[in-house]
Amino acid sequence: MRSVKSLATAAEAGRHQREWFADLRARVAAGEPFALLNADVPHEIFRTMDIPYAVSQWWASLVTAKQRSGHYLGLVRQRGYPDYSEQYNSVTLGSAFDPEPEAGPWGGLPRPDIIVGDASGDVTRKIFDIWGQEPGVTFYPLESGAENEVPANWWELMPHRWEEAVGPARLDLLTAELENLVRFLETTTGRRFGESRFREVMALVNEQEEWNRKTRDLIARTRPAPLSVVDSIPSVMLPQWHRGTEWARDLARRFYEEVRDRVDAGHAACPGERARLMWIGRGLWYDMGFYQRFQEEYGAVFVWSMYLAIAADGYVRYGDDPMRALAARFAAFSDQLYTPPWSSEWYVKEARLHGIDGVVHLVSDDPRGSYFTARALESAGFPVIEIHADNVDTRTFDDDITGRVGRWLEDVVLPRRASSGSPAA
Fold first, then answer.
1. DSSP label at 362?
2. Domain of life here (predicted)?
3. Which letter, b or e, does each residue of 200-233 get, where b requires 16 or more Cβ atoms within 10 Å of its Cβ?
4. Cβ contact 357:304 at 8 Å
5. CA separation for the pair 377, 407 (Å, rounded)
6. End-to-end alpha-carbon separation of the chain, Å?
7. Are 383 and 425 in contact (CB under 8 A)?
8. Are strands 114-118 and 35-37 parallel, antiparallel or unpaired?
9. Which residue from 425, 404, 418 is spatially nearest to 275, judged by alpha carbons?
């Protein structure tokens, strides 16, 4: 059995990313301000103001795919900082300490003028504080609020009833912080924030994510799976870093059309599909081939990752107040992925929607709620195997992990599927 070839949209996204980064480096070299942003902060403000930016986690994933994460973690260690905690952002921090930054992937990450991150954990905040100590770098932190009341089925509320889902106190806080961020950026960069342009950016993001929702739903109901996560992740995630552009919106539409065409033509990632798997956790960037190793021997296909699913459920926000709608997009973003019962109930919903037979759960040190995620899925009838490793640190990946997953498939998932004749429900 062979995996389907990589999607044309994935190849286009890869080409665009290289061209975009070369243009970004040229703009920064010409004197434009450059911002480095955490994944969970509102990029839409920077898009509106045409401030060049890159995303810390994207850079870490690129470095790791190029097998260079060990180099940057080593630079962090040489400065006396821990290289074994929150590696996803620590890898990027290592770029600040590189004596030869141009030797990095694609010519290296330019030195940022502005860092923006949310204070969602002690370690993350400290990493960005260290960035802010570098000459010429300003760190602008955003608070991370919490709410005692957790809505049921938040994914149904978020598009239009986000005030009810997130809560007014959290929205008041983040809206005020974003308005202050705009004033800070106008003062420090000389760029102006245009309300009409902001509305255009917000509308483009909603259109992009509506296409992602259609794609998610199509993959979920198609048997056998038309593609695996190896094919879907580039087509959804690279455009996510360009939210608010026509290119990203249009690529999301073409991604849907390409998947639809594969479904109509009867293409399958694994024609002899015997089990549908769910990958919970960040992408295993140093070994993306891991996801395909179980197709030929076991007929087991990874059909789900958080990237397409959270694009479908986590971003769409409609409303007359665009700044408050943007706050609603991010005030509970980490909750949706990592904080139970927000996250655990969503993972169960997604497992049912996709007809999942087994869940492989990557458990890193820093994401919270892993225990409750696994227990919720098991209670709902989905077998779970946990892998304790970090997605950008090869030192944490046990050589026997592939063997463990294979034995789990043989001993648990495939016998259960054979006895039931259908996916868990």
1. E
2. Bacteria
3. bbbebbbbbbbbbbbbbeebbebebbbbbbbbbb
4. no
5. 20
6. 27
7. no
8. parallel
9. 418
> What's the CA gap between 152 and 183, in Å, rounded?
36
**Assessment of whether the complete model's pTM goes beyond 0.85:** yes
If phi > 0 it is left, if psi is from -120 to 50 it is alpha, else beta; for residue 324 that is alpha
CB atoms near residue 181 (< 10 Å): 20
Strand order across the 384-388 sheet = 300-304, 275-280, 358-363, 384-388
Angle, helices 306-313 vs 195-221, to 10°: value is 130
Q: What are phi and psi of 378, to 5 degrees?
A: -65, -40
**Which amino acid, one-letter code, is at 16?**
H
DSSP for 179-238, written as a single string? HHHHHHHHHHH-----HHHHHHHHHHHHHHHHHHHHHHHHHHH-SS-S--HHHHHHHHHH
How does pLDDT run across 347-358, given as a tens digit for each residue? 999 999 999 999
Rg of the chain's alpha carbons, rounded to an integer?
21
Which tens digit of pLDDT belongs to each residue from 262-321? 999 999 999 999 999 999 999 999 999 999 999 989 999 999 999 999 999 999 999 999
